[in-house]
Queue: 2 jobs
Job 1
Amino acid sequence: MSAEKIKKLAAEYFNEIQNIRQHIHAHPELSFQEIETSKFVQQKLSEWKIPFTPNIAKTGIVAILKSNKNADKKVIALRSELDALPIHEKNNCSYASQNAGVMHACGHDVHTACMLGAAKILNELNAEWEGTIKLIFQPSEEKEPGGASVMIKEGVLENPKPEMILALHVHPSMTVGKTGFRSGLYMASADEIYITVKGKGGHGALPQNCVDTVLLASHIVVALQQIVSRNAYPIIPTVLSFGKMIANGATNVIPDEVRIEGTLRTMDEPWRKVVHQKIKQIAQGVAQSMGGDAVVEISNGYPCLKNDFTVTEKSRANAKKYLGDENVEELDLRMTAEDFSFFAEKIPACFFRLGTASADGSNSSAVHTATFNIDEQALEIGAGLMAYQAMQHLAV
């Protein structure tokens, strides 16, 4: 398949892909609440006569593209996400969020628009490829337990079972026209840490009558940092951060309880389990040594994301053919997390990045910020590249 033919169609469909992205961006919905977004995607699939199954994991969709000939030759999957974040958008653009306090600040609108664009291209070129492509429109990437895990439990990787899966993700530190890959470990696991520190509250002027929970909580947060600095094997990336501490006392009131909340990120699954135990041991030990107690709850989040070597290197080679060697970069390890890792645990996978910043430095605000936006030329590149990747992987 000629890359030029796909590029021509991507350019031809650009305005439609752009309109899709802007519509989704203007109407963001939170995790597992993507009702209107799901309906909009279904509308597009129906318009293009692409068969689909809705209501998987509540709002998820699976569409099926089959070639006119030899549809059973090989099955692959593509994935995008539907949900947005609880962020109030600060961009001043015609398609800014119309839902107060909700924003597509992680690019899921871009991913969905690119995958719909790729679907239209692949449908148009149906006679030029063989096999079956599953299009997975996934809800709730931003919220545990992760829409990917729920869709897998509901059978999204069965009937038919794909041999591999691909997904792209916006990368605002990379300019439009470029893409990035990394084989093997790429992103960290992510667990949520909740610690309730219990003591004896009372008057701040009479600390001798109290078991000071604020002091206990402070010692616990400091003590837990030794897990990273002194217990972790230095070559295993590990991050333990606490971003929330609620005392609800007063200037002269020591509360009975203090709540601490944080996140654990690492890139080694056995070590991850060890850290869980150490957090509990240290928190409880410090609290008890000072006359109090600590209840530790750890919510197991997304596992480490590992890109399959064979699929990723093939995808990298495909990208070089489509965009040129100079536009394909090596990605660094990231301590952020992705529930695409659940798919990567089940079948060979490749999660790659799409440059979205403008050459002049604009459109480079980080994801999860109120000013995140993209150079929309990335939509044409992303849709075409996904279509090309799918056809090249089916051709093997």
Job 2
Amino acid sequence: MFRPLSINIGLRYAGSRHGHLSLVTFVALMGLALSVSVLLFVQGVVAGFERELTNRILGVIPHVSVRARESIATPSGLLQLIGGIPHVQGSAAVIEGQALLSVGQKVRGVTVTGIEPHQYRQVSHIDQYVQGASLITLTPGDYGIVVGIQLADELGLMIGSPVAVVLPDVTVTPLGAFPRQKSFRVQGILDTGSQLDRRYVFIHQIDAAMLYRLGEGVHSIKARLDDPLRASDVRFEILANVSNEFTVSTWFQTYGPLYGAIRAQKGMMLLLLSLLVAVASINLVSSLVMIVSERRGDIAILRTMGSNRWLLLATFVFLGIAISGVGVAAGIGLGYVLGVFAEAGFPMLESLLGVKLMGEYIVDTLPFAFTPTDVWNVTGIAGLLTLLATLYPAWRASSTNPAEALQHE
């Protein structure tokens, strides 16, 4: 197959086993590979957190919440109104309240969410994270409850365990004032791998209505959107169609700063860690300059045989690109392996240390997402920096004076 002369010469130099030059080239290649792998690994971890936030958090929590000052006595009309707004995929009436879960001497504060299971599936994918019986099997009058796995661990709960839900309201009896409470049975364990597992419990809406004495009323209407990023637009649309007694909130108010921080951090880390690739490119410059110095005789002979400066320029540019191409490819492979092993080995490390290293964060695992976009971004940055790094050595080679180079040969 025909190849330009500059490519043939560049490949010959790239495959040369010329003593210390091979070692210098190998060191430059490994430096580039390590810098690319670190850059890709960090980008993958940040992308993993973004994926987990989107799938676990935004897949579980409703995107928009409409709440009245007291309660919504007739939710059907508001459900119909919200369901007809563009980009709203589904809506559900919900009862929410603060309470305590009590098991023996152990007490934890939680948010009780009373749902109608079939209706709530329109606004949340939470059912796929429930172990044991699903939310669909919540039956009014059975007083079943779904608790998060972190709550279950802290309180020592299992499927079928009894647990008391204690409300802040006080009931006055002839024996004195006592907080209102009701005994429930654990029907499912919620495991989203996030802080939701520590804060929320779910019961049937009718049981919640009896617990909070709401009759047929509810506290809020939840909505799910086809695009969570349109939540602000939908919020303004709802506000324009309801009275002042309602307040409308979105997921931006609770998780928006985290989402924005992840997006901003991803770009910032890409910029900062690109400096590693720049340092590796400087090593590549040193390696190419040494190759040019070592090959001055060859370059002079090529010039005397009639080769122009553009041929030599193209030869050493291609040589640098060939070396950097191997380094970038090795870095991409190494970055992927690091990410996979880090994600798989993180639970083992936590088990070995006996502590939840990320238990205080909203996502308590170390996720890794290997996305084509990140690969292209890292490859593009590395390719551009290494291309720039080859220009000076290539220019130096093309500027070699044949008479000076050959006078001592």
